[in-house]
Amino acid sequence: MTAGPGSKRILDLCCGTGDLTRQLVKGGGELFSLDFSFNMLKKGVAKGWLSGENVSADAGKLPFKGESFDYLTIAFGIRNIPDVDVFLGESLRVLKPGGKLLILELTRPDNGFVRFFYNLYLTKILPFIGGILSGKREAYGYLAGSISTFLDRDTLIERIKLAGFKSVDYKKKTFGVATIYICGK
User: Fold this and answer.
1) Each residue's pLDDT tens digit, 53-110
2) Which of 21, 127, 178, 180: disulfide with 140, CB 3.0–4.6 Å?
3) Which of 105, 104, 103, 91 is nearest to 185 (CA)?
4) How many CB atoms lie within 10 A of CB 124?
5) Taking every pair of C-alpha atoms in the chain, what is the biggest distance, in angstroms?
6) What SS3 state is found at 48?
7) Distance between CA 66 and CA 81 in Å, rounded?
8) CB 88: neighbour CB atoms within 10 A?
9) CA atoms within 13 A on the CB side of 161
10) 0.85 surpassed by pTM
11) Which of 109, 129, 127, 106 is nearest to 118 (CA)?
12) What are the backbone dihedrals phi and psi of residue 131, each rounded to the nearest 5 degrees, phi first?
């Protein structure tokens, strides 16, 4: 996900330790990183992945003035936000006119064949292997559950439009296992 030209203001939401943020830095611009967990931000700074403005805050209560950013990004975080509608409203509020919210999220594939093997991998194989390697099998069970219970693609697009975004495009990636939503103000 490329955020845009170097003169833009970008807010990476639910940034964690900065996996996406470190890629966005390469594109230039004024970059802000936000995560609910102060400890995640500290780890990201320690890894050297987070620089610039790092803010520990709730993505549903953004501590910025209206129309502050050209781009907002969120990667694999929206399904963990308690109230998606509040989040979308806050995102719209802090975006400048013509700004974009870019969402990258894991999704359920449309193709039944792909969906069958994806579900097998997600519910059986990943928790088993991930549990062995990390000792935290429950974390991988949570991942599968959060994907299966999150809004489907069409419902999320409808909610984005209801929040007031003027345009919503999407691109399926990896056979529909992930989707990028491009939401224009």
Assistant:
1) 899 999 999 999 999 999 999 999 999 999 999 999 999 999 999 999 999 998 888 8
2) 127
3) 91
4) 11
5) 48
6) coil
7) 21
8) 24
9) 10
10) yes
11) 109
12) -65, -40
